[in-house]
Amino acid sequence: MNEPKISVGILSEEELNFELYGDYKSSGFLHPFSGSFNARIVDGRIICVRGDEKIEISDEIVFEPENPNTDSFLLKEVTIGVKFHWERKEKQRFNGALKLLKEGDKITAINVVPVEKYLVSVISSEMSAKCSLQLLKAHAIISRSWLLAQIQKSNELKKEKTSYQTVFQTEDELIKWYDREDHTHFDVCADDHCQRYQGITKVFTDVAKAAIKETAGMVLTSEGNICDARFSKSCGGVSESFENVWEPVKYPYLTRIIDHKYEPENLSLDFSKEENAVKWIEANPPAYCNTTDKKILSQILLDYDQETTDFYRWKTEFTQAELSNLIKEKSGIDFGEIIDLIPVERGLSARLIKLKIVGTKKTLIIGKELEIRRTLSKSHLYSSAFIVKKSGILNGIPQKFVLVGAGWGHGVGLCQIGAAVMANKGFQFDEILLHYFKDSKLEKIY
Fold this sequence. Notes:
Elements: E1 5-13, E2 15-25, E3 33-42, E4 45-50, E5 53-57, E6 60-65, E7 72-80, E8 88-94, E9 97-103, E10 106-114, H1 115-126, H2 133-160, E11 167-169, E12 173-176, E13 188-189, H3 206-215, E14 218-222, E15 225-226, E16 231-232, H4 274-282, H5 294-300, E17 313-319, H6 320-331, E18 338-346, E19 352-359, E20 363-367, H7 369-375, E21 386-391, E22 400-406, E23 414-415, H8 416-424, H9 429-436, E24 441-444
Parallel strand pairs: 1-13, 12-20, 16-23
Antiparallel strand pairs: 1-10, 2-3, 2-6, 2-7, 3-4, 4-5, 6-9, 7-8, 9-10, 11-12, 14-15, 14-24, 17-22, 18-19, 19-20, 21-22
Helix pairs in contact: 1-2, 1-3, 2-3, 2-8, 2-9, 5-8
């Protein structure tokens, strides 16, 4: 198998501004292109303008670099952290080819790039490229595994012409999960919905490049298949099982692991009993990801991630008005005043899979974890592993809700903060991977 190329969706807007550094060729045009361009749709066609020069095409155009090692292109106003609490816009620079694709009344910018070049950026975008070589090598392997597993899965779905369902709705329940199958014109997107990919802007250390070079073509496998390896910021002490977050499929390598060298004392991990979940979330048990070491955290987390200081245990408060307005805004449903938020089902890490919202006008069970997090926050709640405390009851209506929670993210697979602590303690990349991905093995496939 040779190193594959992949297509990454960067942004989709009615108007794009981009710059080509170097000579870029495009099929159907004799001369190369370089410099600053503005692209927009006029009368159903893509028009790219640079001064007096105008390129007009119907549905798509690809700009190929003549020298892939030195040529690059810049996209302006790229949104990162879409709908997360750190959302902002950046200029981003990329190697590889730039494809502009007309989708309705918008233009989608797609980067076509070899896998290993993509991965150098991913491990620098997901964390800081200043972190340890062992952590970056571990992350390179799971990012490569996840990417190739997604492409394989996408190809299988197309071949089978299977309808991939992610929403199950009745009058009493709305169960929905978010994965990457909604990308039809490119392999993966560039944001947290897939993997953070912010071009060559973030690639600034030799250690990130070394991590990719030393693991090139290496993936995790299980039962002869590339692992659909996942990761999140902080598992909160126990990792979650894949089927509780996404589609109802069990993977032996994506199930609960205790993020420590021994089981927690005096705490039961049977979270089907709510009292155990309450004790777990209110406790502060030892775990690899239970750290406040700023040196370690600054290695893993980019500047905007460090705006969040409560990784392991956290708390957020709402007044009745804030919560009822928020749920109405995020769900599109008027529940009236919120009477209660009731845990219905929890996963193996105490993350809620189903939550019942009880209002004066409407009662509904929602899930899975990301739907719960989106409904209860203007951006994203840190995780769905939380308990609810109510106070100020007036005529049966609580006036205040406090959510006390554990972890940051979905909690499946590798825990980035835990892995960073393990690397700092001297664990090698393969030991870190086999801690988080049970029953998997390392293979070099190209």
